[in-house]
């Protein structure tokens, strides 16, 4: 129940940040490209500068319509989030969607696979429609980090 409440609170925060009148959604290819740019940015500029840029809504490289970057460590702690700074520093390993799916654990499973990257589907509040929608998050492992972005289906 606590995880569901956390999800609801986080979702409300995301909805409040939605741009008025935005209707176009990001694509799977754009989510993959944004994630790969974020991984490269971390490698080129270091974690501190990268995380600040991921949180900066004026940075259109890492914020585009409903696309944004999020980063977790391999223990489930949110270390950067493109639209919800309240998540940063929190261990969200037990976070579940409304259907009970463990979101961050699923990210870790994908990042720990031999490929080290892939897609995770879960229900999440859409910042544009303000409804809980099916979301597909693309994640890639980069050292001890899981870097991702996602699309709403």
UniProtKB/TrEMBL annotation:
A cellular-component GO term for this protein: plasma membrane
Signal peptide: 1-18
Membrane topology designation: Multi-pass membrane protein
Broad class of the protein's primary localization: membrane
UniProt-annotated location(s): Cell membrane
Domain of life assignment: Bacteria
Keyword terms of this UniProt record: Cell membrane, Membrane, Signal, Transmembrane, Transmembrane helix
InterPro entries the record matches: sCache_2
Segments forming domain Single Cache: 20-105
SMART domains named among the record's database cross-references: Cache_2
Entries under Gene3D superfamilies matching the protein: PAS domain
Protein name as it appears in the record: Cache domain-containing protein
Organism: Rugamonas brunnea
């Amino acid at each position: 129940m606590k995880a569901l409440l956390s999800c609801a609170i986080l979702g409300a925060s995301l909805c409040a940040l939605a741009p008025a009148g935005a209707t176009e959604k990001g694509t799977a290819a754009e989510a993959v490209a944004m994630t790969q740019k974020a991984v490269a940015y971390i490698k080129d500029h270091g974690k501190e500068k990268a995380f600040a840029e991921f949180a900066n809504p004026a940075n259109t490289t890492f914020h585009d319509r409903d696309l944004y970057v999020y980063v977790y460590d391999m223990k489930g702690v949110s270390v950067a989030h493109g639209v919800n700074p309240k998540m940063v520093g929190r261990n969200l390993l037990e976070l579940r969607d409304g259907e009970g799916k463990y979101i961050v654990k699923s990210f870790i499973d994908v990042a720990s696979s031999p490929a080290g990257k892939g897609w995770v589907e879960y229900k999440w509040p859409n910042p544009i429609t303000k409804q809980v929608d099916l979301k597909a998050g693309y994640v890639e492992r980069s050292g001890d980090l899981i870097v991702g972005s996602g699309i709403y289906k």
